[in-house]
Design a protein that fits this description.
The protein has 272 residues and is α/β, with parallel strands linked by helices. The chain has a single domain (3-269), classed as TIM Barrel (Alpha-Beta Barrel), CATH 3.20.20.370. Helices cover 42% and strands 13% of the residues. The chain has helices at residues 16-27, 43-51, 75-83, 89-107, 126-136, 157-166, 170-176, 197-207, 229-239, 242-251, 260-263, and strands at residues 3-12, 33-36, 57-62, 113-116, 143-144, 185-186, 213-216, 253-255. Strands 1, 2, 3, 4, 5, 6, 7 and 8 form an 8-stranded parallel beta sheet that branches. Helix 8 (197-207) packs parallel to helix 10 (242-251). The model is unreliable at 260-272 (pLDDT under 50).
């Protein structure tokens, strides 16, 4: 029996080349979701093309680190300040509202889910601003990516450990607030062009349960400002290939939308 796994491409609207690659993969059902930089100046121009992908889930890629404006800061800033609880809560809530508004104004509907660029949405204080703002706006339908539910370390156990530690408790907080959370999350790796992406994907697809969430970062350009451009091209080539289709078939996986009835984390799992 086939399992449905949500394969989500991050970073839509970061650049034209990344967005075109994601659109191509969505059109042939190699992906089932993508998350959008609503701050991007490209978003208004790309949204109509994305809207034609009727089977795709479209989410907000909440951003505080990519420099679309002068409010962006390096990830290290948010890591340190969130741990010290020195971030301005009202300003963070305003950023959530602004990015949601930019998403809904252009696409004409609410996001299917919310995640974060470099997972900033799940950090302390930032998670509080996100959840409180969603509640304030009466938004109960989006599901939320929970980095602390990372279930496979890819090729970087240290990166996985740091991510899960920094985001610890996010899934439980989201559930307590009434939001759905995929119980199994994967796709993390070094993002190095030397990584064996095909082998990693084969492993993820083999172990991912029904309704798992896998992130990816495909692209097909040579953006000199993008430090992971080479890894993006490698991902795109693999996800476009017959080899990937055969891997899905062999693993009994169908890329599809999030299945909320089977992927909500159960209450007894909270302390894991």
């Amino acid at each position: 029996m086939n399992r449905t796994v949500t394969l989500c491409a991050d970073d839509f609207a970061q650049s034209a080349a990344i967005s075109e690659a994601i659109l191509e993969l969505l059109s042939v059902r190699r992906l089932s979701a993508t998350s959008v930089f609503s701050q991007s100046p490209l978003w208004p121009h790309l949204a109509p093309q994305l809207a034609t992908q009727s089977s795709a889930e479209i989410g907000l890629h909440f951003n505080l680190t990519h420099p679309f404006d002068d409010t962006a800061r390096p990830l290290s800033h948010w890591l340190i300040q969130s741990q010290l609880h020195r971030l301005p809560s009202a300003w963070l809530a305003d950023q959530v509202r602004k990015q949601l508004d930019a998403f809904t104004t252009i696409l004409g509907r609410l996001p299917d889910f919310i995640d974060g660029h470099q997972h900033v949405h799940a950090l302390p204080q930032i998670r509080d601003a996100l959840l409180s703002t969603l509640a304030e706006l009466g938004m109960t339908t989006p599901y939320l990516r929970a980095p602390d539910r990372l279930s496979h370390p890819g090729d970087s156990r240290s990166k996985a450990f740091v991510l899960k530690t920094l985001c610890r408790g996010f899934a439980c907080r989201a559930m307590d607030a009434g939001y759905r959370v995929p119980a199994w999350f994967g796709g993390l790796y070094s993002l190095s062009p030397e990584a064996d992406y095909a082998a990693l994907m084969a492993k993820w697809l083999t172990v991912a349960p029904e309704s798992a969430l896998l992130m990816c970062h495909p692209g097909n350009g040579s953006d000199n400002d993008d430090p992971i451009a080479a890894a993006r091209r490698k991902e795109f080539r693999y996800l476009s290939s017959d080899r990937f289709a055969e891997c899905c078939e062999s693993a009994g996986v169908l890329p599809g939308p999030f299945q909320s009835n089977q992927s909500v984390i159960m209450v007894q799992d909270k302390n894991n």
